[in-house]
């Protein structure tokens, strides 16, 4: 079994790879959605999947893993556990990502950003801004699923890469069929 097959199998068996009609946080529509929280509820499965991503950047020198809340918190913890490094998270305060809870990033700290899914890179870039403002350096991004079609300015190490088609709301074939959409995820209603 290839690593892609292993990861896809875990996503499907945990119900993390959803089929349906989804309104994404970008406003676009899709017929598939990845809800990694369903995978992350199983520590043994999450460990197997994240080991695939961890192996890709194991030889890269870094000091700290930083995950954006919510999706990056458990990912940061598990990657840090596997690699023997500290893992922290940033969270929104007044709609702006910031370090709280006594977390700090010292000047010169080489950081890897952890995510569950990378799509547009928005949360990663907000996290990178916090790291840079502290004087840290972003080495790359580690995630479970890379579904980014856009240019991300850092290396991305993922357990699997998925191409999921999306459509503008006014040109969605599922809307034209009268199929109701749901808005999943941390920025949605589910």
UniProtKB/TrEMBL annotation:
Its EC number is 2.4.2.10. Transmembrane segments: none annotated. GO terms for molecular function: magnesium ion binding; orotate phosphoribosyltransferase activity. Its cofactor is Mg(2+). PANTHER family: OROTATE PHOSPHORIBOSYLTRANSFERASE, URIDINE 5'-MONOPHOSPHATE SYNTHASE. The keyword Magnesium applies. Keywords: Glycosyltransferase, Magnesium, Pyrimidine biosynthesis, Transferase. It is an enzyme of class 2 (transferase). InterPro entries: OPRT (IPR023031), Orotate_PRibTrfase_bac (IPR006273), PRTase-like (IPR029057), PRTase_dom (IPR000836). The lineage of its organism: Bacteria, Pseudomonadati, Caldisericota/Cryosericota group, Candidatus Cryosericota, Candidatus Cryosericia. 5-phospho-alpha-D-ribose 1-diphosphate binds at residues 115-123. Belongs to the purine/pyrimidine phosphoribosyltransferase family. PyrE subfamily. It catalyses: orotidine 5'-phosphate + diphosphate = orotate + 5-phospho-alpha-D-ribose 1-diphosphate. Catalyzes the transfer of a ribosyl phosphate group from 5-phosphoribose 1-diphosphate to orotate, leading to the formation of orotidine monophosphate (OMP). The keyword Magnesium applies. Homodimer. NCBIfam families: pyrE_Therm. Residues 62-150 form the Phosphoribosyltransferase domain. One of its GO terms (biological process) is pyrimidine nucleobase biosynthetic process. Pathway: Pyrimidine metabolism; UMP biosynthesis via de novo pathway; UMP from orotate: step 1/2. Orotate binds at residues 119, 147. This is Orotate phosphoribosyltransferase. SUPFAM superfamilies: PRTase-like.
């Amino acid at each position: 079994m290839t690593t892609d097959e292993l990861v896809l199998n875990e996503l499907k068996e945990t119900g993390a790879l959803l089929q349906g009609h989804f309104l994404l946080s970008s406003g676009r529509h899709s017929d598939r959605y990845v809800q990694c929280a369903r995978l992350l509820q199983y520590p043994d499965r999450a460990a197997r999947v994240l080991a695939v991503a961890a192996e890709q950047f194991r030889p890269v020198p870094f000091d700290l893993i930083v995950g954006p809340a919510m999706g990056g918190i458990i990912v940061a913890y598990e990657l840090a556990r596997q690699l023997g490094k500290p893992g922290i998270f940033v969270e929104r305060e007044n709609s702006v990502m910031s370090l709280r809870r006594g977390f700090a990033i010292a000047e010169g700290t080489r950081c890897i950003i952890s995510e569950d899914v990378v799509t547009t890179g928005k949360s990663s870039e907000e996290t990178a801004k916090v790291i840079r403002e502290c004087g840290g350096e972003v080495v790359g991004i580690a995630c479970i699923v890379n579904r980014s079609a856009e240019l991300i300015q850092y290396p991305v190490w993922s357990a699997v890469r998925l191409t999921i088609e999306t459509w503008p709301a006014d040109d969605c074939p599922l809307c034209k069929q009268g199929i109701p959409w749901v808005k999943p995820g941390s920025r949605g209603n589910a």
